[in-house]
């Protein structure tokens, strides 16, 4: 089942990527931030991305690359969540990434949680017409092996009212439906993804699969591209147990093709002196109990 297990890792070093196969995981989600890769209109910086892709492929890891976040030169100096002024600038970026990594990256995510204003300040129509359609057409034209993955939906707030019209309009462009789900337990994640809302449960939100069916996308592959628990909030053993619940469901259900944990390593930074303990590994790269859970499921045959 290794090929169905993934982990979020942002822009990992080679030593960090060694931890991924060691945990029985076969895919890694990485950040292809537009503002990093093309900091100026006529200047590209592929240094980090080249190294990440090379290191991942050397370890036989599949790369799930998220294309997102506008550089200031492309939107008049506004925030990274603001759409570009010209669709052509976005198309140039997508084409450059797809051509450069044609033989090493085949799964392309188009933005991150565009139904959340902090990540996408534009409208749903702008997301579809400026981001999704132009990128999908380029990716499919460059290689039939390319898979367009979107919308990397946040299932917080009133997500169904955004998700359904998004899928209804984008279904011909999308190869894989990608969503995020952060629930209290692994079993609750499964309920949120796949348990149909009954007619009398008017207070509940529908499941992700139910909305996909309403939108005519019930036959599309579904990927869970973010899901996790902070070990400094729930404890390391509970984090592991929640992943066990999640992966137990994955092992027995083929309708969810792939699940990505969030995330590989605990993090800290200048504005975050205390580590953000989402990782399945601690900051010093020592494994938490969740690593053994991933390793155990990674050794199972796929359904």
What is the topological layout?
Elements: E1 5-10, H1 14-17, H2 19-22, E2 27-33, H3 34-37, H4 47-58, E3 62-68, H5 87-100, E4 107-110, H6 124-142, E5 147-154, H7 160-170, E6 176-180, H8 186-194, H9 208-214, E7 222-226, H10 231-234, H11 236-252, E8 256-261, E9 267-269, E10 272-276, H12 289-298
Parallel strand pairs: 1-2, 1-8, 2-3, 3-4, 4-5, 5-6, 6-7, 7-8
Antiparallel strand pairs: 9-10
Helix pairs in contact: 5-6, 6-7, 7-9, 8-11, 11-12
Structural write-up:
- This protein has twelve helices and ten strands.
- The protein is an alpha/beta fold and 303 residues long.
- The protein has one domain: TIM Barrel, CATH 3.20.20.
- The strands form two sheets. An eight-stranded parallel barrel has the order 1-2-3-4-5-6-7-8. It has a two-stranded antiparallel ribbon with strand order 9-10.
- α5 links the parallel β3 and β4.
Which terms summarize this structure?
alpha/beta, 8-stranded parallel β-barrel, two-stranded antiparallel sheet, 12 helices, 303 residues, TIM Barrel
Radius of gyration in whole Å, from Cα? 19 Å
**What gap, in angstroms, lies between the N and C termini?**
8 Å
CATH architecture name: Alpha-Beta Barrel
* Tally of DSSP β-strands: 10
Number of helices: 12
Q: Could you report the average pLDDT, rounded to the nearest whole number?
A: 95
Order of helices and strands: EHHEHHEHEHEHEHHEHHEEEH
* Lateral strand order in the biggest sheet: 1-2-3-4-5-6-7-8
The CATH superfamily is Glycosidases
Query: What class would the helix/strand composition place it in?
Result: alpha/beta
How large is the share of residues in beta strands? Answer: 15-25%
């Amino acid at each position: 089942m290794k090929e169905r297990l993934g982990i979020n890792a942002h822009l990992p070093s080679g030593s960090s990527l060694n931890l991924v196969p060691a945990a029985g995981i076969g895919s890694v989600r990485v950040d292809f931030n537009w503002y990093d890769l093309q900091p100026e209109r006529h200047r590209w910086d592929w240094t980090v991305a080249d190294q990440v892709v090379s290191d991942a492929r050397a370890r036989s890891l599949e790369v799930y690359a998220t294309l997102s976040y506008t550089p200031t030169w492309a939107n008049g100096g506004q925030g990274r969540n603001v759409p570009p002024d010209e669709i052509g600038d976005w198309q140039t970026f997508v084409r450059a990434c797809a051509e450069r990594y044609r033989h090493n990256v085949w799964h392309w995510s188009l933005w991150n949680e565009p139904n959340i204003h902090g990540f996408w300040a534009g409208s749903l129509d702008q997301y579809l017409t400026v981001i999704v359609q132009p990128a999908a057409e380029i990716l499919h034209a460059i290689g039939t092996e390319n898979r367009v993955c979107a919308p990397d939906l946040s299932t917080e707030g009133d997500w169904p009212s955004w998700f359904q019209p998004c899928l209804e309009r984008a279904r011909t462009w999308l190869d894989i439906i990608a969503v995020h789900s952060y629930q209290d337990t692994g079993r609750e994640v499964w309920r949120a993804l796949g348990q149909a809302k009954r007619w009398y449960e008017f207070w509940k939100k529908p499941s992700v699969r139910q909305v996909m069916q309403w939108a005519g996308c019930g036959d599309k592959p579904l990927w869970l591209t973010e899901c996790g628990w902070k070990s400094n909030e729930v404890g390391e053993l509970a984090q592991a147990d929640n992943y066990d619940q999640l992966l137990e469901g994955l092992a027995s259900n083929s309708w969810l093709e792939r699940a990505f944990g969030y995330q590989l390593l605990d993090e800290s930074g200048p504005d975050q002196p205390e580590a953000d303990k989402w990782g399945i590994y601690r900051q010093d790269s020592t494994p938490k109990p969740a690593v053994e859970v991933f390793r155990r499921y990674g050794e199972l045959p796929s359904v």
